[in-house]
Amino acid sequence: MAVSIKSAREIELMREAGRILAMVHEKLGKIIRPGISTWDIDDFGTRLIKESGCIPNFLNYNGFPAAICVSVNEEVVHGIPSKERILQEGDIVSLDAGLIYKGYHSDAARTYGVGVISPDVAKLIEVTKQSFFEGIKKARAGNHLYDISNTIDEYVSGFGYGVVRDLVGHGIGTKLHEDPQIPNFAQKRRGIKLQPGMTLCIEPMINMGYAEVEWLEDDWTVVSEDGSWSAHYENTILITEGEPELLTMAH
Predict the structure, then answer these.
(1) What is the pLDDT of residues 50-59, one digit of tens each?
(2) pLDDT tier, 71 (very low <50, low <70, confident <90, very high otherwise)
(3) What is the rounded CA–CA span in Å between residue 75 and residue 221?
(4) Is residue 25 a contact partner of residue 106, using CB atoms and an 8 Å limit?
(5) What share of the chain is helix, strand, coil (3-state, %, to 5)?
(6) Has residue 141 got a pLDDT over 80?
(7) Domain 8-245 class?
(8) How far is CA 185 from CA 147, 181, 203, 205, in A?
(9) pLDDT at residue 158 greater than cutoff 90
């Protein structure tokens, strides 16, 4: 497994790719409301990315037809935007987006409540987000990759939620998906040793019920097998000599 170590110049380009994506997510979050279609969200996101001089990296990736994955309620990831899919009060929606800046990729996801949501669902979103922050406490040079996986699993399991196993995080750089794969569930082995200059996407996907998922007939949309609602939270991070740097968060 060859995990790329980014040069100082590459890190600067990754930082800019991440900074722009953070801004895109911030603006997308502000339009989430009952009555908006998932197509509207994708249309707005596509325009934001292109107006920033970047390329939407999800659009046409292995045939995916949109720039933003918009996944509602029991949809875990890769929801295809549609004019017919209208967000309702009480729904939750996960937005997974990425872009290319001067040949370098960024990738991040957020889950939002639509209007007023139930306390149970709000807790699912919060635990999913916090599991990311628990995991990256281990994202330091000298630690091992699966220290991150084990920490996420341990935190989430305490709440009785299902940690999705069929989809994992990944390395990122000149390609959207690079080595290594980064599970969000406990591993017996330790994984590679983390080194400064690695850029990784950590992305817990958490179901309120069981961990099992299935693919719909469109071959993209992943849903929880038991119909339970799901949340997703992701950032592109940089391993440094000290604390990890979150490239896709507004500072």
Answers:
(1) 999 999 999 9
(2) very high
(3) 7
(4) no
(5) 30, 25, 45
(6) yes
(7) alpha beta
(8) 10, 12, 11, 10
(9) yes
Q: In the predicted model, what is the mean pLDDT of residues 143-156? A: 98
In whole angstroms, what is the distance from residue 129 CA to residue 184 CA? 13
Tokens of 115: 């209007």
Q: How many CB atoms lie within 10 A of CB 250?
A: 11
Q: How many CB atoms lie within 10 A of CB 186?
A: 14
d(CA 200, CA 47): 26
What pLDDT sits at residue 1? 72
82: Cβ contacts below 8 Å, ≥ 6 apart: 37, 38, 39
- pTM greater than the 0.90 cutoff: yes
Report yes or no: 26 and 77 within 8 Å, Cβ to Cβ.
no
- The residues spanned by each domain of the chain are 8-245
Going 40 to 45 to 46 to 47, the CA torsion angle's sign is positive
Residue type, 141: A
